[in-house]
Amino acid sequence: MVLILKRTYFPDGTNSKLEYEGKLICNAIELPWKKNETKVSCIPEGKYFIRKRYSNKFKWHLEVMNVENRKFILIHPANNALAELNGCIAPVTQFSGPGLGLMSRKAFYKLKDMAYKALDREEEVRLIVKSDFQ
């Protein structure tokens, strides 16, 4: 399974469309691009693998693997990138501004369900992050 995250960058946050096989799964919000600085920047554009992860805070969620100079880049629910994210990706149902979204849990569960089904079939889940202008 290959997921494509197409970003639009703003000074206060990053808004993206997350697609699978050319179809929109959900939107996503992230921190603004600040040269991959820990906890204040979205991750660099590139290709990554996704795996299942569990924590007490987020329960079952997703982790973006092998991000250069970063650890614990997660995909979890959040509606405000600046207030709730430390470099992670938050699926949202719709945008309410740069780095802001609505109904994150609904979008997160849709994405998580798709990814977990692929992982349960022992398929790789890859994430390609790129600018919407590429």
From TrEMBL:
InterPro entries: DUF5675
Domain DUF5675: 5-114
Any Pfam family: DUF5675
UniProt name for this protein: DUF5675 domain-containing protein
